[in-house]
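The aim of this short unit is practical: by the end, you should be able to scan a pair of folded records and say something sensible about each. We start with the first protein, listed as its amino acid sequence and then its structure tokens.
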Amino acid sequence: MMQNINNVTEFVFLGLTQNDELQKICFVIFLFFYLVIVLGNLLIVATVIFSSRLNSPMYFFLSYLSFVDICYSSVTAPKMIVDFLAEKKTISFIGCIAQLFGVHFFGCTEIFILTVMAYDRYIAICKPLHYTTIMTKRICGQMVAASWFGGFMHSLVQILMTIRLPFCGPNEIDHYFCDVHPLLQLACTDTYIVGIIVVANSGMIALSCFLILVVSYIVILVFLRSRSSEGRRKALSTCASHITVVILFFGPCTFTYIRPSSNFSEDKTVALFYTVVTPMLNPLIYTLRNEEMKNAMRKLWSRKIFFSSEKTKM
């Protein structure tokens, strides 16, 4: 039985780089990235909320995906950006555990929402006549609630496993945020069993959801073979954005969590894809390839300009 002996009150991040000049450049780049993430995803959320035309389940799920992206990046990005200018990149033990919880809570919730979005596309394309009866507002709400609950339970398991580990030192984490694998490397006990549980928990969730997504899109592609070229083109255009996001998010995520804990320093570079790059690209991917979204944004923008000009005249 593991004793909860903890001589470590704080952890020190080694960050992405130790080069001072490179850190200043990274500060500017990642600050810009984070602003794009927040503003871009907020724009999608606002557009879906205020546009009466974007009332389908697809946009309902997209608004929640954008909200989760903001929360997910906000758990790691602000701390990473501040640390680029900090002489010593420290985080308290409690802060580290809180960050670990947030990363897995929002990350797992995003995995489930992306899976739900694939199911929505499957029903819309393969069973169009039953779409409105299957994907009701109540069912969509329950799916989103189940995604949040699943993310919470997954994160709770990660916390309960990690917080019981004894940390006697050293306290340097070769990463830019607190994650399970780097913390297992610092624990002063045998973490083999915990590592297996982490792979079974995090890795299998990512891999199984990814396989479900792959199968669903294979079924969709097979089904589209019998459709007209115009119908096929329209259906593929709605799926292409989602497939792109799935590949960008699930690829690095599955690579990180499907294998046992190891001293793989490139993990932090891989982690940038699912904590920063994908949340930043999501607004661009879903808007540039979606005429409905672009038209709704134009109308929302023109409406705001109209109201602001009316107020100035009064």
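Turning to the second protein, read its sequence before its tokens, just as you did above.
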Amino acid sequence: MENTNNVSEFILLGLTQDQELQRVCFGIFLVFYIAILFGNLLIIVTIKSSPRLTSPMYFFLSYLSFVDMCYSSVIVPKVLADFLVKKKVISYVGCMTQLFTAHFFGCTEIFLLTAMAYDRYIAICKPLHYTTIISKSVCSWMVAVSWLGSFVHSMVQTLLTVHLPFCGPNEIDHYLCDVHPLLKLACTDTYTVGLLMMANSGMICLSCFLVLTVSYIVILLTLRTHSSEGRLKALSTCASHITVVILFFGPCIFIYMRPSTTFSEDKSVTVFYTIITPMLNPFIYTLRNEEVKSAMRKLWSRKRLWSEK
């Protein structure tokens, strides 16, 4: 396939063309982004500074918060800047870089959520073997495999896109560079490439979601044999995880489990897993977790004592 690429930059059409609405969106998205950075950073600092939050669940949660910050930072600053200008331009290199990094951090989040479900499965279904199965080295390996698997996934997505010829037009009907809007602009038949991308992204989302679903069905069945106190504590932790999984995987499956077609709802749906979910994660995991809330109160008390001295 001859790569006759005549496009050096792309024009993003953004979420809306209404100038007044763009200013409103700028304020809302800025608040969301500050909440993402502050909330996730607070979780990381709390976990790292608390001697009680050393279990594998909090180890994975700290990495999830870090990934959420990185994932949003790949997308939101550019969106905020575009709300303030009439012509939203991104270079070809910048577009491919955003595509790679967004898929890298997004896929890492999928793998981390799956690892967290496995951790909860072992903790609830095989409690006597938990410390031997989920050791510190195993947790580190699971995180490393998540990073590596995400890198491979992102490289495949990016290489498939880079080899497409773009002859014009160069207007992307989205607020970020993603596979479906770019396939729509390629001046060649993208059916095969679209299927490969769907198999890559869609099957990762679907297979991990099925693993998570089966894990939590088994967990809920196992909880019937636990005491009422233990059942409530486990359900509280699992409910937080299930909420995050639904918020993140639902939109992802809608976007990536289909051929190279675009819908008018795509932009609104994408907002959920790129901005809303990373913002809600800290609240979901802290509001239902007494250990994290207690650690945050102690951290705040130490900070006040230090400032008074």
